[in-house]
Amino acid sequence: MDKYQTFEYDVIVVGAGGAGLRAAIEASAGGAKTALVCKSLLGKAHTVMAEGGVAAALHNVDTRDDWKVHFRDTMKGGKFLNQWRMAQLHAQEAPDRVRELEEWGAVFDRTKDGRMLQRNFGGHTYPRLAHVGDRTGLEMIRTLQDKGVHAGIDVHMECTIRSILKDGERVAGCFGYQRESGRFVVFRAKSVVLATGGIGRCWEITSNSWEYTADGHAMAMWAGADLIDMEFVQFHPTGMVWPPSVKGTLITEGVRGEGGVLLNSEGERFMFDNVPEMFQGDYAETQEEATQWVQEVIAGKQATVRRPPELLTRDVVARAIRKEVRAGRGSPHGGVFLDIASRRSAEEIKKKLPSMYHQFKELADVDITTDPMEVGPTCHYMMGGIRVDPETQQSTMPGLFAAGESAGGMHGSNRLGGNSLSDLLVFGKRAGEHAAKYASETNSIGEINADEVQRVAGESLKPFDDSDGENPYTVHEELRTVMQNLVGIVRTDEDLRSALGEFEELRERAAKVKVDGNIQFNPGWHLALDLKNMLDISEAVTRAALERTESRGGHTREDHPGSDDEWGKVNNIVRQTDSGIGVFREPLSEMPDELRQLLNSE
Amino acid sequence: MASETVSPREYGLGKTHRHDNWWVGPMATAIGLGGFGVYATFRAIYNAEYVVGHGTQTLPESAYLLSPFYSPLLVFPWLPSWLSPAFLILWAPGGFRLTCYYYRKAYYRAFFLDPPACAVGEPRNAYQGETKLFLFQNLHRYFLYFALIFLVLLAIDVVHACLWPSGGGMTFGISVGTLVLALNVTLLSLYTFSCHSWRHLVGGKVDCFSCVALGQARYKAWKRVSFLNKTHMLWAWTSLFGVGFADFYVWMVASGRITDLRIF
Amino acid sequence: MAEEATVKIYRGDNESGEMVEYKIPLVPGMVVLDAVHTAQAMQAPDLAVRWNCKAGKCGSCSGEVNGKPKLMCMDRMDKYPDGEPITIRPMKSFRVLKDLACDVSWNYEVNKQIPAFKMQDTGGEEPKFSQEEADRVQEFRKCIECFLCQNVCHVLREHDKKEEFGGPRFFVRAAGLEMHPLDDENRLGLLKDELGLGYCNITKCCTEVCPESITITDNAIIPLKERVVDEFYDPVKKLLRIVFPK
User: Fold this and answer.
1) Class of domain C4-102 (CATH, top level)
2) How far is CA A473 from CA A95, A102, A509, C105, in A?
3) Are B109 and C133 within 8 A, CB to CB?
4) Is the pTM of this model over 0.80?
5) What's the pLDDT tens digit per position in A156-179?
């Protein structure tokens, strides 16, 4: 054991995005000796890329809004597969969590009377997203970071956690390596919070950074915890499609919230023809109505007409774009057009969407104040994740908590834009609070199993021994291609089965990739180790997708195009079993009547 | 593939990995500021041909034109003859420019080479910045107060330059000289009112405009000055050439080399 | 457009290294970070480089391209002349860990010294301030902490005054707090002494390299210098404070 640096804490939080930071702040405030471990430098986590805003029913802009409407929107967006209690807590607590950020120094955009301004977003009935131009995530993470550095939290930057360590059935800590030195580290702790984000690097076209390699999902599964809703992956409708170097880079939904429209190559606003039955009557039916809505909203009035169909939920818009491109009505580089230039003045665009303006100008030579953008779907968010208790965020394994994107259940089959940032805050806080509580109620820290540490350490160093293996980058590229082509937006039984076959082969190749150089700051080695996480979680996604023989939210089956009421009553649970990764059906928990009535009321 | 061993950092004057002509900027600044310094010093020592027109020995039939290097004109008979009246007043505008936030950048780069350009090595290791010896830079706001007074005085000079002796009284008239002085005071005003200290004074120091007296007015003033402040460097240079040219024009007229053309 | 570019990348540690040459097939819209990634994937898997968002929002991929401090993900390859090798080096002001990755931990230590935001007592009322007041602070809060300003600032780069100087990044941070309409903390003494604002000679290189186009010098540093003058160097104000103590 002396070979490894060992630290001891009450609570270890893995991941320093919004959820991890919020959890660490709360755990520390709860009196726990807390450490935050993250793969990148502090403040670089994926939360900085969240652009549009944080959804909370503050009703600063439209007084008709309240948590009940937010709850209903969230459930409708998730096609009622959400853990209703999480959606309820989220809608109820989000306003307080956002106000708290302001107390901590966040500077949101203001209304005319000096309060937090809120903007419209897909699937939200009223303007609900508190925002800062198009860099809301940065504002949040900086606020939390600055709060955190004064909260006495130890931060271990550029440290990758590879496995959860157990003492019997409870958590004893975790094991990882310092990216810079390559040295192994053991963190002993009474409770561990996983806030590791998503799994987007399994796909070829993604808005996610290198960090999104499914670490938390995989570690929890290996440790024996349940995963939920793994078939539901969100493809954001508007990613960049040209030039190739930025393919997949996100374009905020805020562009549509500010009045941007989607057009095909024939100049048609095709979203009018793509309103699903569930949302019939909720959206504008004519250009004039949609335009009037935008004008009212820009003028800061309460809208008296229905919103444009461009603001339908992300799953719907992404599928509609795919359909247009398939029908030969796409843009030159295989997307559709997103036009804000003809809707708003150049000055307004630069003020409300500064980083979009900058991003297109610099990277694509497109001036969005005069020309339309070319956009297409990009893998963006993982609805599924570690199955948690709604109140405490504890997983099915004692002492192991999860929050943010790595936790599942809150968003059901599809997440509304803006609900992720509020999810981070609400459930980050809850996870931190209960992890600290769990730690304080636990007398002794779990024992570390030295053999287990030895095993993971040995496995980690193996790529240096394989002299005839292939380059880890090649295997990763192939995995991404398989997932893109066979487990993408639209899936079939046949594709999913052949993906499973591909994984078998890739797994063999991944087991003997070779890396050059030494253990110090070696990205090739780091990727070689991440391959296992990505392969296992890709398989989990594929198996859950194969099981669900219907289309719902972020999961579309070409061979089962409609929704199936029976499937609407169950979640898929993914669990590691002796015979491999298994999928089990679990009925949704019963919703209290008063909430059920909320869903039915309009 | 590999080449010789290199160090991740090297120090010394001009050490850089930049590929562009980084030395053009500081050299142009050095020539511009140096040239003006030489000319201004020469003209201050010259102590002649700085005023013409009504009430003087030169061209008493035309309007009064005074070089800005000598305005306000302080003539004390007891002063030694080698000390020109220019020296009695030039410390004020000189001090304003010396302590100006823009000129500080310009001469720290061009003359002190601290640094000569961004990401380019420097000649010296020792560095104290604006601490210790350079603490006087913090008095910029006092030079600003003087500069504001000078603007009034130079504006009065423009009024004088519009008054032409006629019979026993004066009539209004404009010559090229009037315009040159008017242009000078305009450029100087733009330079002065785009000053960082002025910006701080009018509203920059206020955090909460809704919490102070005259908050809205101060906010508007601060916004306008901030807008002007973006082009402070432009006004610093144009007003520098403007003031030099105004002096040069008066000199040329006073020495009889050119005639000041009356427009009406 | 040429089909291939040559990049020369620093490979080594804090003591010494080599400029290793890589031939990179060019793709439309390629940025310098793509070239580094291509080298990594095809020829040098152990080439150390930091990156995250690849869209100029996280500030991870800072380096020096042809001697100029840049975010590599926002630096287009087609801006550089065909056929000439592009040199890519790590930031000069920080210890090199490996290749293009530097030890920037000093910055996090400086940040800890700055007292956090402290909300004024609003008497239980919802805090309110206008967009006009927010605008000024929001400019500073755009900072993505790429530390290019810290890297280019000659006080750190040439004189290594990390002990007595906080650097432009933290003047921007302090400005964002000091100018917040509802902040109740005073950081002017800290700025003058511990953060060494006086070492800044406002030569504006920080502003020149800022990828977020924050007007660091004119909008953050100079106004802070003026506030420090108000508090510590203005003789008349000092006198007034003696005659009329608060």
Assistant:
1) alpha beta
2) 43, 43, 12, 29
3) no
4) yes
5) 999 999 999 999 999 999 999 999
